[in-house]
Amino acid sequence: MASAASVTSLVDEVNCPICQGTLREPVTIDCGHNFCRGCLTRYCEIPGSESEESLTCPLCKEPFRPGSFRPNWQLANVVENIERLKLVATLGPEEEDVCQEHGEKVYFFCEDDEAQLCVVCREAGEHGAHTVRFLEDAAGPYREQIQKCLMNLRKEREEIQEIQSRENKRIQVLLTQVATKRQQVISEFAHLSQFLEEQRSILLEQLERLDGDILKQQEEFDSLVAGEICRFSALIEELEEKSERPARELLTDIRSTLIRCETRKCRKPEAVSPELGQRIRDFPQQALPLQKEMKKFLEKLCFELDYEPAHISLDPQTSHPKLLLSEDYKRARFSYKWQNSPESPQRFDRATCVLAHSGFTGGRHTWVVNVDLAHGGSCTVGVVSEDVRRKGELRLRPEEGVWALRLAWGFVSALASFPTRLALEEQLRQVRVSLDYEVGWVTFANAVTHEHIYTFTASFTGKVFPFFGLWGRGSSFSLSY
């Protein structure tokens, strides 16, 4: 039986450094010290401790993060046991083992009344027909029940802890995804802002040019009109003077004067030339690239916010021996020299291919393949089912669990049931592969221009993996997102 002094010593060991009382819901911080959850929470709320950098351990002054509280279940169990010992120590051995009614030592337990009995109690008539056992014999089955309960409770606690760990990891993944999307929005709008500023400068410059051309033609028009008005004013003045002269002078050279006035035709100039007018009417067409770029921006932004960037790497266990993988497994290069690769059921032995290390069983994912082909080289990118053929000949078509695009020197083909050569506006060097597992789409696009290339439609039932094939000395590819 624990003495009062020993219990007091144990109690001192499980005191909270903040409230000086026994720990309640003990939690551990980064430096290893333990506190009551409530005390530490109130400590973090002290004015002047709002920033995480200013929070330090009340004991050792080591910095810690408020979100780093870790429940200390083992210490909580120790505290509970100490409290129980403390209670027993305060009762004393006489009060614990002696029947309060008869003053005799307690030896028995009545299972019907769940009462502890001394010899006198046992002989009393009220327990005569009951099941009475010695204390240890009666405690045995209850100990077993308690152990079963403890086993179940500990199992449930472990399950809760596993759920907590899993959900915390999930929260971290979601926070990472949100941070990535935030960075995407900032980056895309920064690019858009730069593009809009460039377009604004171009359009304003064109308007300035039109404005200058209009003013120039106005000046030419005013000069021409002023000259015409001056000439007509001179003729009018001459005729007015002629009409007031005597008949002899009026008739002198009258026919020549009239011919000169009648044959003088007024030139009717235009203030704005047809060419300038057409340029003004065509000005709205200058904004079409802006409209097209805005549409492309919105489509790209919605796509990138909808699809999760896949942080994939190449799986060396699946790589054909002719593929040289980089140390970070983000790049592969073709070599005619076979690598010393151990035999593996997952490894491709004829098709010079490699899979990503991780596959997908749901969701929307996207990644970019940067292709660098030598003359005569080719690269295959896409998605394959987990049970795709690894040994012998691999037929690259959907019926074999392969949904892929082949990039070769000078052309691109969709590897459908019957390969389809595709016409593209420019040579493809960066391919964006997008997987929508639930809908069953595998989409390929030009990662630079965002031009759609091809989309496969499938019904996925198991795990699928990003897939890559490479051929041709000097050819390589690398991964990004």
From TrEMBL:
Which intervals hold domain B box-type?
94-135
Record localization: Cytoplasm
| Regions annotated as coiled coil | 143-213
**Which keywords describe this protein according to UniProt?**
Coiled coil, Cytoplasm, Metal-binding, Zinc, Zinc-finger
Q: Name one Pfam family in it.
A: zf-B_box
The record, for PROSITE patterns, names: B302_SPRY, ZF_BBOX, ZF_RING_1, ZF_RING_2
**What superkingdom does the record give?**
Eukaryota
A single cellular component GO annotation: cytoplasm
Which GO molecular function entries does the Swiss-Prot or TrEMBL record give?
A: zinc ion binding
In what residue span(s) does the RING-type domain sit?
A: 16-61
All copies of domain B30.2/SPRY, residue ranges:
292-481
Annotated GO biological processes are: erythrocyte differentiation; host-mediated suppression of symbiont invasion
CDD domains found in the cross-reference section: RING-HC_TRIM10_C-IV, SPRY_PRY_TRIM10
Q: How does it assemble?
A: Interacts with IFNAR1; this interaction prevents association of IFNAR1 with TYK2.
Q: Which family does it belong to?
A: Belongs to the TRIM/RBCC family.
Q: What is this protein called?
A: Tripartite motif-containing protein 10
Q: Which organism is it from?
A: Sciurus vulgaris
Give the gene symbol.
Answer: TRIM10
